[in-house]
């Protein structure tokens, strides 16, 4: 701020000294109002707020310390410079204790010293005022942010409830010798991983696990859209309703979903594993669409990855997917994970992670068999990988466990 716009108040009962100070300050570019006693100063302050006050310490009616105290009650932010004919240390300490911006001793031989003190006090006051403004703005921004986070959490929780209601029943038994359990651990409130399954024509058990790219609300909304899309495909395309369609429709479903994802321009792609089990013959046909890790089949003491490969959905318009076939025994366990599991296993290299996953699953399965534990439950897999102890996960983790017979 230019000095000409600075309004100063000078209080001094010595008119000669006061006029000398005022003249010099006005010549230095300040706008100055002068009074000869404390009461006149109070009256002027009742209707105006100066940028700074210069007051004499020793006056007959009211001393400068009393003025300083009074000013602090009126407005704590006005800088006050105290001028005294006596450089008594006690007075200096008292003045500074009550908030004086500076203390100068008369006679002021060089009034430029006063000008320098005024400008320094004004600069300091300006910095304090600016800091206070920044603090108030920051506090307001923090309040707004907290409110935004509160609303966001409310929306995310509502979205999570919607998403959870679209999931199939957990701890499901098909009545055809199959038991299903699953778990989805989101990295945020909402998950881009999704699982669905159901028994078709009272014979074919169809299921899928999908992982939509990204985190949070956008991929979660895609999973909601995907469930409705798959339902529509079942209804309109009549897939998986005959023995012939059982042999081909896993790939047909992926082609339909791939086309819809590309045409919708949702900005996401997804990996997927789709399987369908003929509960009468225990033949399973499945399709892999860019999904890692591959499903693990556990039979007896053996655990192995099911072979398969294919492109993710939503990227390649001309994508083709091969249907693989495996004959399942009466007793088996099939474990399918989203790639979030690879983020929480110890090894760093992908191949080492996959090897660790396979060995850990085999060990867990053999241990459960020795102890005659319930292999239909999914808690053994969660415990095996320490998922029960994780407060947060870097990526969504989905686990689907399908058990045939006694596993």
Describe what is shown at a glance:
The protein has 407 residues and is α+β, with helices and mostly antiparallel strands. It has helices spanning 15-27, 38-45, 64-74, 89-97, 112-166, 217-237, 243-264, 350-370, 379-384; strands at 7-11, 31-35, 52-56, 80-84, 102-105, 172-173, 178-185, 193-200, 204-212, 270-278, 283-289, 296-299, 302-305, 324-327, 332-337, 397-404. Strand 4, helix 4 (89-97) and strand 5 (102-105) form a beta-alpha-beta unit.
What do you see in this structure?
- With 407 residues, this protein is an alpha+beta fold.
- It folds into two domains: 3-134, Response regulator (Rossmann fold, 3-Layer(aba) Sandwich); 167-404, PPM-type phosphatase domain (Phosphatase 2c, domain 1).
- The chain is 41% helix and 23% strand.
- Strands 6-7-16-15-12-13 form a six-stranded antiparallel beta sheet, covered by helices on one side. A five-stranded parallel beta sheet has the order 2-1-3-4-5, sandwiched between helices.
- A hairpin with a 4-residue loop joins strand 6 (172-173) and strand 7.
- The longest helix has 55 residues, at 112-166.
* Subunit organisation of the chains: single chain
Q: What is the number of domains?
A: 2
What is the molecular shape?
A: rod-shaped
Number of DSSP strand runs = 16
The ordered string of helix (H) and strand (E) elements is EHEHEHEHEHEEEEHHEEEEEEHHE
Overall helicity = 40-55%
CATH topology of the largest domain: Phosphatase 2c, domain 1
What's the CATH architecture of the largest domain?
4-Layer Sandwich
What is the typical, i.e. mean, pLDDT? Answer: 87
Q: Give the C-level CATH assignment of the largest domain.
A: Alpha Beta
